Protein: Protein-lysine N-methyltransferase Dbus_chr2Rg1434
Organism: Drosophila busckii
Amino acid sequence: MELEGSELGTKDYWETSYTREIKNYKSHGDVGEIWFDEDSQQRVVDWLLKQDNIDKQKARVLDLGCGNGMFLIALGNEGYTQLTGVDYSPKAIELAQGIAKDQTLSINYQVADLTQGAQELGTYQIVHDKGTYDAVSLCPDNPKEKRMQYLATVAQLLQDEESFFVITSCNWTEDELLQSFDELFTKHCTIPTPTFKFGGKVGNVVTSVVFKKRKTK
């Protein structure tokens, strides 16, 4: 199954959006929208804080499609120090850098298109995606090919089989993610999200799943 293409899957849309948000931030100090709410972000932060095997000082964290960088701001405020954010929108990176500077947090931000590979970024213990796989899926041109390239890049970015790929999606169910990720990743756990009931069936507004890289044979 493929999602119908949307402007949300285009670089032009995000450049225009973040150009507007930079102006708002400079004028009013408004950091802009956190895509599908702060609660989704906080649930991931809370889950990470409960993991005894993650050292805040040593764990390298990468936020894919970081946008305004508020996920990394949240981790920085919790004591994480090895933080990197990437986005294919230069305007998003400009906004994120400005916010981090004003918060006096040291966060590395850089422009990168994850559908084109990203070996220069190195490897990480925690790789985070909130909505970026969704945006790639909405690309009007070759979305399936771009999704596969994106996932291959994510696998290369994980340090080892004990590293975590944490993804939150508002377009794909957990079963759909499991099916699409099966070749490269295995499910570690589900981060519970709010449910709703409609027509006797229970569903989730968003899906948050933690994956690990499949062991190489």
Observations:
- The chain has one domain: 7-213.
